[in-house]
């Protein structure tokens, strides 16, 4: 595949599909490039028992409600099936097995070098999400036991009998600890992340969602601190872990052989480790100087330093929910509205839009 498009969306997950839905409504000439083999592939590759941390009423994308009871917590495969239905419903032009190797700005246009052919575009929306490179701490190599990152964990059968250390006490760590607890002794290490301090959907939550953005000093401090220590628990409660027999311990600071050294000085013998220590961004393929400390410099996804370049799905992009399924739609609409206005301003108007469906938020 090769050619020139009005817009190219890089990434075919929930953020990329939401942006595609808005561009489709606007009549834009665009394509979605995705590295996966099918829509929803990143969800299907997660651990077997995974359920979303938020109930179905918070998991809608623009224009299509999630097909489940409002209080149902969807499984990973239900989420993947929903994304497949979404892409099909709106006839989104997703091209699979199209990993992007390089994005450059060449004059007034962008050039995209991707598997399957190179492209040119007037606008680019980067929707690759926050889960890029699985992160393990530097001391992981000093642990002489089987190890998995949460991105590779599927079920307890992958791990030996004995005491399992789960490192990272955020949502993923808590969920995996509960998955292991019926058949293993589980030690969950990490600072207490607490729980989301307000109920989802209420007035206080909406205010918190607006505050937690990298656009203001308070939001940046909380957002970057949360990124390093794990996000507050949403579905799982501390008492759920205690009831399941999961042992909570301090964070791990070092390791030696089959023992982990904790911040409080204790040492823990372990048979295996699951690292729920998050991910690190990887934008090495974007050859445009729009980054500061590895993060794109943007306002609500619009990159002022490179007109025509946008991001969707970043953590705390415009609020707490920006990287969650139910939060990507608001940001997707903002950047595609900006894209459409810019396209008109430079003399390349989109086709007249059809009727706008009521947004589902």
UniProtKB/TrEMBL annotation:
InterPro entries: Auxin_biosynth/cation_transpt, FAD/NAD-bd_sf. SUPFAM superfamilies: FAD/NAD(P)-binding domain. One of its GO terms (molecular function) is monooxygenase activity. Signal peptide: none annotated. Keywords: Monooxygenase, Oxidoreductase. This is Monooxygenase.
